[in-house]
Write a structure and sequence with these properties.
Cytidine Deaminase, domain 2; Ubiquitin-like (UB roll); homodimer; 2 domains
């Protein structure tokens, strides 16, 4: 079986007792170049699904885009190019960038974003009934995850439903796709993000810059991920399960 | 408890039935700038352990270093700078880079490395007795992994033992530290790498450029990770366990 995002492949299981063959599904990792108003900004490895959202979210992560009103058009060329056209000044490249620690893709963040002022998040509250539906829906939609063991998923809950969900070989790319979906008007940022990946600095920073009030992960934050959440006033929840959250700051947005 | 690589932190466990407090250990993620012969090459988020190895391995990953004989001195400044001095031409910056998909740090690879010629790997063979000791030793040494759930580990087996092992918030950084250990003469590349992280393109490419013959992961490869292993003639093994390997190419180096 081959899907738009995975390829079937034979592998050999070796054990001391003997060998056997098995079919495996591999997640597709392929390079895409992202341009803004015909100027090439960068190239990234990506799972080739949700590429319009990825292109816009990538440019948001790098500091080129910040508002849905800026984005005019996105054209994806399957040979490996995402062209974003936006009403912004594309020659303001970040000068001093830090390469990110995390699994995922955008790869670098401008240092001034890490240290600069962050606007307060939008306000919302989330009940355990919502959290349960959110996490179960995301895990149910994640077909590629259990099939390839090589992708992370990321979803956003807003206006009482899972408004968007994406997978990618990079946990950062999956977050970028959510940011792109918001900038393309497909989801509201007034809600909660859930990721299967770890919450390192760049993961949390992107959510903070988008003013998303609640950020949840199936697993752990790093020290810098937590520090950014504290500075931004975000609710940061780790080890998120349908009936259990491990909240590191601002638990007040979670209700019973 | 606070270690050189983790910080203790109180978090609140929320459930529909009520709240409680718990102590958690968070992995430290902090930015370090890497310079080569006093010229700043980049900055990366990193777990502050094995920083000499990381600085050297980072420069290897970016294409600035390739041979142990080149490295002259490494000075780590705890305020956030790794200064590498080497007998190389530091102004040959890669022109056309691709941001990597993966969890970890080096963040970008020159496009010509992805497409260019790769030298054949060194030759070795590995028995299941070795594999069992290798994987059990690495998992036993990974203290930060089970404590923080926020790091990946990477080890190299050569000359009949685990010659080096590192952890990092980024799976790529942990591989970079192994590459640095090899370039600093602490381990031979004629052996096998085991990582707890996924084998995306940059993970495999670094091992291929170092001519490491066997690359194993606790989890899965991506399509491009496998393609590079095939092109380089590397043995690529996924879902590696003490008595079971799922080998995608070149199984001949594994013996019973």
């Amino acid at each position: 079986m081959t899907t738009e995002a995975s390829i079937s492949c034979t592998s050999t299981i070796l054990t001391p007792a003997g060998n056997s063959e098995v079919e495996e599904q591999l997640a597709i990792e392929t390079p895409y170049t992202i341009s803004l108003n015909e100027i090439e900004i960068g190239a990234s490895m990506v799972l080739p699904v949700g590429l319009e959202e990825f292109g816009v979210g990538f440019l948001f992560g790098q500091g080129y885009l910040s508002d849905p009103k800026e984005v005019k058009e996105v054209i994806v060329c399957p040979e490996g190019k995402i062209s974003v056209y936006a009403d912004v000044d594309e020659d303001v490249a970040p000068k001093d960038v830090i390469i990110t620690s995390g699994c995922g893709g955008t790869g670098k963040i401008p240092r001034d974003m890490l240290e600069g002022k962050i606007d307060a998040p939008l306000e919302t509250s989330l009940s355990f009934a919502d959290i349960s539906v959110f996490i179960r829906t995301v895990l149910h939609r994640s077909t590629l995850g259990p099939m390839t063991h090589c992708v992370h998923g990321c979803g956003i809950w807003s206006e009482g439903k899972v408004a968007a969900f994406y997978e990618d070989v990079g946990r950062h790319n999956a977050v970028d796709k959510i940011m792109g979906a918001i900038l393309l008007g497909k989801a509201s940022p007034r809600g909660a993000v859930y990721t299967t990946g770890r919450l390192t600095s760049d993961m949390v920073l992107k959510c903070a810059r988008m003013r998303i009030p609640i950020v949840m992960s199936r697993t752990a934050p790093s020290t810098l991920g937590l520090a950014i959440a504290q500075r931004a006033g975000i609710t940061l929840a780790a080890y998120a399960r349908p009936e259990r959250l491990n909240v590191f700051c601002n638990p007040n947005r979670i209700s019973n």
